[in-house]
Amino acid sequence: MPGLLETVNWFDIWFLRLMQSALSPWLISLALAVTLLGNPLLWILIAMAVYWHGRETESFYLMNVALFSSIVVGALKFVVARPRPNPGIFKAIATDTYTGLSFPSGHSALIAAYWAYLRKFLNRKKDLLFLAVVLLVGLSRIYLGVHFLSDVVAGIVFGIAIGRWNLWLKEKVKHSHFRPSKLLDSLAIAGILLFSLLALSFLESVPLAAIFLGFYAGFFLSKEFNLKVENLGFRAGMVRTIVGFASIAVILTVLPLITSVNLPSQEFGATRTFLLLGLVGFWGSFLFPLLCSKFGGSKTNLNGLGNVGANQ
């Protein structure tokens, strides 16, 4: 009598074959589009857009979901070490830049984590729509040949736990000012983030760790300097968001061209990439809001640094 793992593995193979028996160009295009909803880079950009609309703290927790999902998925993939579906048997249509391991599905975990975190703020129709998106992202990962059904199910389960934990964390520190000079205010959460970033750099994705590091550094620095981004309304906020994304595109295209001349080694190139992506995160949470303040869209008190902590 086959054991549980053998049964799960048999069902995984059967279900993947069933899904890929209906491959068609338009369904593949649809799956490739849907699977992007579980990409952490998309949600990082969304978190930055929320930041630029004057909701810095909410952006912080949105970023936490992506960070915690990445670290949990990375750790589990390292421990379980399950290979992805064999491309010699199944058609691998999508690719994963970060790892060749399969369990659990990172895309499924991420989108499920955001659903679990955000559903408290959604009405019933939007909640059900978001749940449908979670299921579609999971199915897209199977259809594209990069995950088994059990990878997706496990990813959703872990994602829900991560989203709920982020909600719990938000309630625990809801009165925090997130200012490093208020040591007791921020020490616990800063420690969690630092540990997560260090683990992420070893387990899942060094580029993601660089973006997170830059974003959190800028976030805490903006709190220290009392840099606040005002909500200018939908239309002006969208203009600011477009400019912000355009400036990130310039950073990612122009700076590599400037620094690519006479690189002494490949190792230096990797360091440059890490610093460049760290700059993207820092730009989103500090430098770009600081520039916006020069045009009357934000408020800041950069001269207050010398007085920070004086009344602690």
Low-confidence stretches: 259-267, 300-312
Number of helices: 11
The radius of gyration over CA amounts to 21 Å
- Give the percentage of residues in beta strands: under 5%
By CATH, the topology is: Vanadium-containing Chloroperoxidase, domain 1
Description:
The longest helix has 28 residues, at 266-293. With 312 residues, the protein is mostly helical. Helix 3 packs antiparallel against helix 4, helix 4 (56-80) packs across helix 7 and helix 9 packs parallel to helix 11 (266-293). It has a single domain (22-302), classed as Vanadium-containing Chloroperoxidase, domain 1. Helix content is 70%, strand content 1%. The model is unreliable at 259-267 and 300-312 (pLDDT under 50). A two-stranded antiparallel sheet has the order 1-2. The chain has helices at residues 4-20, 25-35, 40-52, 56-80, 106-118, 124-143, 149-172, 183-203, 206-224, 234-259, 266-293; strands spanning 228-229, 298-299. It contains 11 helices and 2 strands; from the N terminus they run αααααααααβααβ.
